[in-house]
Specification:
Low-confidence stretches: 1-44
CATH superfamily of the largest domain: Reverse transcriptase/Diguanylate cyclase domain
Number of strands: 11
CATH topology of the largest domain: Alpha-Beta Plaits
Number of helices: 10
Strand order of the largest sheet: 6-7-5-10-11
Radius of gyration: 43 Å
CATH class of the largest domain: Alpha Beta
Mean pLDDT: 78
Number of domains: 3
Shape: elongated
Length: 390
């Protein structure tokens, strides 16, 4: 029958063969609830047969796949939409198979190609979906681990959060994505609620801590004013140093800020005293104090005469790396000093010990660790910096 599809038996399936007509692709999309009619050649209209309806339906399904396409690893959504339209045209009017130049011989449709195109899309969609779900579970699992680690560091973890985290951890391993989504949202809501409650409870603590900080600042300023200054070096004396050291430990621990202690000892000071007298020795100490005052300029730090020819520097909010840089600068500045006495010129060097404040330190242990580092510097040959490692 002219213009009607014919069945061709093949080993794989029954293939449609139809003669190409001048029918446009738009003629295969009738309004819902109406019967299809096409104009073939002349103006004579004939109703669509079952085979034409099947072709039209298959083409429509291919276009629907393209309309709602998603990006996949193998092909982007825009390209898939284009391929879907080309396959739909191939099904409708025997247009060229995507990727080929001319129309198929005798208007044969490549049904195997249509099946492979659809199968490949479904397979890739399945792989893509499983990958996305797997990535989602991985993200949730990382979220769980990080939140658990954060909660483990808090001594005030709310039981509601722990209970919610337990449910979420179980669901992340086995449940459906809808259940997982629900529990993730529930966890976020629970954490937000607990954090808001904790914020309100911490408000008074913050105000109290602020009052303590202000009091400590006032005490520090009072200590600076009331403490006696060493008459020789014009640096703070041992009493001021002890008070400042104690407050530094308290503040640094409270705010988790770094701090470093530095002990500076003048090398071979006794021979200078024995050779040139105590007056020259006092002059040398004064010059050394001047050098330290020029190096350590911050008002937040303290330079003191710790005892004899030993000076101390307390560095607040200072990392051990920055303290080492300052110590190296001090070494170079002291080496540049020249003392002229009785027609003789001699230079100076110092040994320096540094210790960073550790969480377990108090003032006594911090000072002892710094003192050990100082003696290591002197025993290693003087004129150097040693940083405590214990």
């Amino acid at each position: 029958m002219a213009g009607r599809p014919q069945f061709l038996a093949t080993p794989d399936d029954m293939l449609f063969e139809t003669r190409r007509t001048n029918m446009s692709a738009s003629q295969f999309s009738p309004p819902a609830g109406t019967k299809r009619a096409t104009t073939i050649g002349a103006e004579r209209a004939t109703p669509l047969g079952a085979h034409e309806m099947a072709l039209d339906t298959l083409a429509a399904m291919l276009r629907i796949l393209g309309e709602f396409a998603l990006d996949q690893e193998e092909v982007e959504a825009a390209l898939f939409t284009q391929l879907s339209e080309q396959w739909a045209q191939h099904v409708l009017v025997a247009a060229p198979v995507p990727g080929t130049d001319g129309p198929p011989a005798d208007a044969r449709r490549d049904w195997a190609g249509v099946r492979e195109f659809t199968r490949e899309y479904c397979r890739n969609s399945s792989v893509h979906t499983r990958t996305v779900i797997g990535d989602l579970r991985q993200v949730v699992w990382v979220f769980i681990q990080n939140l658990n680690q954060t909660l483990a560091q808090s001594s005030e973890t709310d039981g509601r959060i722990l209970e919610q985290m337990g449910r979420l951890e179980t669901l992340a391993q086995s449940s459906s994505t809808s259940d997982l989504k629900r529990e993730v949202l529930a966890t976020v809501v629970t954490v937000a609620r607990v954090m808001e409650e904790r914020k309100k409870n911490d408000h008074d603590r913050v105000e109290d801590l602020g009052a303590r900080v202000r009091l400590l600042g006032e005490e520090l300023e009072s200590a600076r004013k009331e403490s006696e200054v060493d008459p020789l070096t014009r640096l703070f004396n041992r009493k001021a140093f002890d008070a400042f050291l104690s407050r530094t430990v308290e503040l640094s621990h409270a705010f988790e800020q770094p701090a470093c202690l530095m002990l500076v000892d003048l090398d071979r000071f006794k021979p200078i005293n024995d050779t040139f007298g105590h007056q020259t020795g006092d002059s040398v100490l004064s010059k050394l104090a001047d050098v330290l005052s020029r190096i350590f300029l911050r008002k937040n730090d303290l330079v003191a005469r710790y005892g004899g020819d030993e000076l101390a520097v307390v560095l607040r909010e200072t990392s051990v790396r920055d303290a080492q840089t300052l110590a190296d600068r001090l070494l170079r500045a002291v080496r540049a000093v020249r003392i002229e006495r009785e027609g003789t010129s001699f230079g100076l060097t110092v040994s320096i010990g540094i210790a960073e404040l550790l969480p377990a330190d108090n003032g006594t242990t911090w000072l002892a660790r710094t003192d050990r580092a100082l003696y290591q510097a002197k025993n290693a040959g003087r004129d150097r910096v040693v940083t405590a490692t214990d």
